[in-house]
Write a structure and sequence with these properties.
Elements lengths: L1 H8 L3 E5 L5 H10 L4 E6 L5 H7 L6 E4 L13 E4 L5 H11 L10
Parallel strand pairs: 1-2, 1-4, 2-3
Helix pairs in contact: 1-2
């Protein structure tokens, strides 16, 4: 579904919050193509070497921080939130950051 959504809308700027080992980020990278700007946010990139082995020189911006402290200056056409899944954490993050995120107008 993520691949098809990116393929259909062709967003130029994408962000993923929650990396783990980069499976979804890799899918986003392949679907979006080389003409996109992609940012990944995670509190810990301990498995980033797996991603780098599969996608060397991807040009993706990696921000290592707790997403509830994330300060965004860019807007994004596509947002994938798959980080901490705790309800209270998400409620706090949403109230702090969702006003900063710009989604696709067509949706």
């Amino acid at each position: 579904l993520i691949w098809k959504t990116i393929e259909y809308f062709q967003p130029k700027s994408l962000i993923e919050i929650g990396f783990f080992a980069g499976q979804t980020l890799g899918l986003m990278y392949e679907a979006a193509g080389n003409n996109s700007y992609i940012t990944s946010v995670d509190i810990n990139y301990s498995r980033k070497n797996i991603f780098d082995n599969v996608f060397p020189n991807s040009g993706i911006e990696f921000i290592e921080t707790d997403s509830k402290f994330l300060s965004l200056t860019n807007s994004y056409d596509f947002i994938q939130i798959d980080g901490n899944h705790d309800y209270e954490y998400l409620k706090q993050m949403n109230s702090m950051n969702c006003s900063k995120l710009q989604t696709l107008h067509e949706l």
